[in-house]
Amino acid sequence: MLLNILFAVLGAALVLFGADKLTDSSVAIARRFSMSEMMIGLTIVAFGTSLPELVVSLTASIEGVPAMSVANIVGSNVFNTLAIVGCTALVGTIAIPHSTIVKDIPFVLLASVVLFALAMDSLLGAGTDILDRGDGVALLAFFTIFMFSTLKLAEGGVVVPEQPTDNTSAEPQKPLLYSILFLIIGLAALIGGGELFVDGASGIAKALGVSDAVIGLTLVAGGTSLPELATSVIAARKGQSGIAIGNVIGSNLFNIFWILGLCSVIRPLPVMGLTVVDFAMLILSSVLFWLFSRTRHRITRGEGFALLAVYVAYLTWLIMNAGA
After folding, report:
1. pLDDT tens digits for range 69-83
2. Which CATH superfamily is domain 2-158+175-320 in?
3. Less Cβ around it within 10 Å: N or C end of the chain?
4. What is the value of pTM for the model shown?
């Protein structure tokens, strides 16, 4: 028990350290290349913080337990949209650019609906619920479209650098290699710390008699999303709302289109242990995210609290029905 507690504490500390370095380095790189913080959050930061989900889902698929892949992604995306956006909004009101409201967030909603349509074959009378290789190719095609449109937008010069906040404008610009080095260090600390935290927290839960089902539905999904949580909250505290919200949007799209697409191409993924309620919550979380963003182009503390309340209600339902 003491060793598990040590792992959990050390993992959390590494995640916080990594998130801090990742945020600062990402902002520096974004400004050097005249990219907006939202753009860097949608791409580099989102890719890095999604690596734990990739490792868990890909390993599960290769080692013959592919059912965990889909559950991990669905749980992580619900956590990202409700818990992370909620916590980030409690730190401070999140400004949402108009282009994000009309393009990026609807794409997150589309990803949730597409996954539901491809995964729940039994609702259409098609037999077993499974993501086959054809579904994987479709998901990867959507990912290609998203990345092409995002990079095309950056290449076209549509986005501009966001204004520095606090005293960052007074800081001398650091060398590019310095920023890249600390970006890598931050990512490594995030991934390693997230893995330590999941191992420690799972060990504590098992020692307390919590079932494997509850651990998988809560700690694994939340633990692999810990890098996103730390990165978004710390970015918000630093006034970098573009990275905070871009990280969540990008991670959700990477998770569904890229990770599940790749895993299901490698090996078909049976959708076991997930219900219509889980997919409904995935879609509902995206709808709430989009609707709240449309209110004056920002997500307030009150709306953040509402998102957290919905997640707590869902978590309560999961725990109460874990043994069913």
Report:
1. 787 788 889 999 999
2. NCX, central ion-binding region (1.20.1420.30)
3. C
4. 0.76
